[in-house]
Specification:
- This protein is an alpha/beta fold.
- The protein has a single domain (40-324), classed as Glycosidases (TIM Barrel, Alpha-Beta Barrel), CATH 3.20.20.
- The protein is built from eleven helices and eight strands.
- It has an eight-stranded parallel beta barrel with strand order 1-2-3-4-5-6-7-8, surrounded by five helices.
- Strand 4, helix 6 (169-182) and strand 5 form a beta-alpha-beta unit.
Length: 325
């Protein structure tokens, strides 16, 4: 009888534990929360707008679309640092595009999105060559950032280093140098890595692979805006992705408490299927639901960013309108 009693206790405890874990994991798909509305939203945008001759009609449609969706920021991909040390010349029409865009939309900030494939990157499928420990390399990057803001008229720069590891001091030095170059009147924005809690960061396979709270704070003290890349989560079910985004939003927001920086949560609408991204799972509706579930009374989240605008579909527009009501 005692063995049977102990067995019942064990089974009951296991069932309660399982239900508790499931309750914690469960993230609803509801978008009707009136408190989950943001005004500082953004989107990553194709290089075509600055690499091709300006089409006035297309620019007008694009500018009006950004305004109708309430996008306060557009990250226009302009270039990346090539292995030979030069920046790819894919931004020849940037100045003309900015002037044309401003004729139809004076509210949306246009930031130059620049890619820096790092040598110490451990991301699967990304082969980097940019070594930020070299002062000469950083100086070249800084000069380019200055040219983008001074000569072409961008409102700021958006740095996407694929992907900076946790506690990378060379990246912090770069941010300090870029800030000094472009000045406080221009926006310094970065694409932030996945967040991991300190308790997981100590594990051998995860150590300094993604950013912890203290490093997010270091970054936040140097930039005006952090836009998280909260996708490529390897999740295979909508509920899991909503949970993933919820925990990313909560973890990063808590890390940046009392730090004067704008936080946007990146959400994917990409239709490209990879090992880390399933379009039916990592989509706008699930991403927004995850962000909304991650909000707290003291949340520092001020908006969401769409990756990427070239894949923003009619169905995404319907979800966006439903969310913004």
């Amino acid at each position: 009888m005692k063995k049977l009693h102990r067995r019942h206790i064990f089974i009951s405890s296991l069932v309660i534990s399982c239900f508790s874990v499931l309750f914690w994991l469960w993230t609803p798909s509801d978008l009707s929360d009136p408190d989950c509305k943001f005004e500082q939203n953004a989107a990553w945008v194709s290089v075509d707008w600055v690499s091709d001759p300006v089409d006035e009609t297309a620019v007008r449609h694009f500018a009006e679309s950004a305004d109708s969706r309430g996008l306060q920021y557009l990250f226009l991909y302009v270039s990346y640092l090539k292995p030979d040390g030069s920046f790819n010349s894919s931004y020849n029409y940037a100045g003309e595009f900015i002037k044309a865009f401003r004729r139809f939309n004076k509210n949306t900030h246009l930031l130059a999105w620049v890619g820096l494939p790092l040598t110490n990157n451990r991301s699967i499928g990304v082969q980097g060559w940019v070594d930020l420990s070299e002062p000469g390399t950083r100086q070249q990057i800084v000069r380019f950032m200055g040219d983008l803001t001074e000569e072409f008229g961008f409102d700021g720069v958006h740095i996407n280093a694929e992907t900076v590891q946790n506690n990378d001091n060379d990246f912090l030095n770069l941010l300090d140098e870029v800030r000094q170059k472009i000045g406080k009147d221009k926006i310094l924005s970065i694409a932030g890595s996945h967040w991991v809690p300190q308790s997981l960061n100590v594990l051998p396979l995860l150590r300094d692979f993604r950013w912890t709270g203290p490093y997010y704070r270091e970054i936040g003290q140097r930039v005006q805006q952090i836009v998280t890349m909260s996708y490529d989560s390897y999740t295979f079910h909508p509920a899991l992705y909503r949970f993933w985004v919820r925990e990313q939003a909560k973890g990063i927001s808590n890390s940046l408490e009392n730090v004067d920086v704008e936080l946007l949560i990146g959400i994917s609408v990409s239709q490209e299927k990879t090992r880390s991204h399933w379009p039916a799972v990592e989509n706008l509706e699930n991403g927004l639901a995850g962000v909304c579930s991650g909000l707290t009374d003291d949340s520092t989240i001020q908006g969401v960013a769409i990756y990427a605008d070239w894949d923003f579909s009619k169905s995404d527009w319907e979800v966006w309108q439903l969310w913004q009501r």
